[in-house]
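Possible regression after last week's pipeline update?

I re-ran a chain I had predicted before the update to compare outputs. Posting the input and the new output here so someone can diff against the archived version. Not blocking, just want to make sure nothing changed silently.
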Amino acid sequence: MRALSKTLIASLFISLSLGIAAGQAGRRPRPANESGVLLNVVAKRENDSSGPITSKQISLYDGGMEQTIKSFSPDPSPARIVLLVDNSLTIRADVEKLEEAAREFAYEIFEGDKLLIVGYDDQAEIVADWTDDAKQIEKSLANFRKKGDPHLFDALSAVAQEALLPFKASNQKRIVVVIGDGLDRGSKTKFDKILAELQSQDITVYAVQAPDRTGGALRRDQPKPVQVIEKLAEGTGGRVFSIKDLREAAKAICDELRKNRYLLSYAPANVSYGDARRLLILADSGINVRSKTLQPPN
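New output (post-update):
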């Protein structure tokens, strides 16, 4: 049934993408001087088997067109993980819980990985600079305090541009773990803009989700907090965990980054480079895959 679903999903995706592109400028072949694209992919067998996953078991659609995969291989590079912690005044988690969340990651990261801990309210401030020293992180956690409003989108923008962009050329895994409920109140940065920025940089967002302090209230000009968390994770290839089980969340995220991350290389063909393009990655039965869902325009 899963193999059949893969075919059906691909057909629906192609139809939708072609419909969206119908009114756009015609597709053109890849320019001769354009290099291939690297795409970060999470791939894991359902039975937790450690057997290799190859490009023959993966299909990629870019803008509705199936692409030729040049290579698909495990990514052994170290991770640069930003813990972006909501320490605004009304977050439904006490300071001790926020400290515990950061502490769990400090003891779960693998050799070579490094953490940057940033707390945000009206401003984003570094709590612990890039380090893999758990004891140093422990000492820094006393800097958490609850005040102000949560400017989540501004904080994400600052982290993407100032903390993670310098690592883009080195192909290291670049990760943001949002620890909060997804509420933004007062950012100058719009949600759609920051999501596109994260997708453009191929930064993966995970979330350790706190209870929604708004009770699901409608927002006039942006998604509800729960939707913000879901869209950030789904749009960038990440996952959402509950703040109720911090140890499980930290272990699952760190294990996934070290054991289940792959680099997919392809040269986009017959796509429109001036428009945002839907990405869809599918796998054979028994394999789960995730990646970002959209390629912003060049």
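Follow-up from reviewer: compared with the archived run. Confidence is low (pLDDT under 50) at residues 1-9, 18-34. Marking as no regression found.
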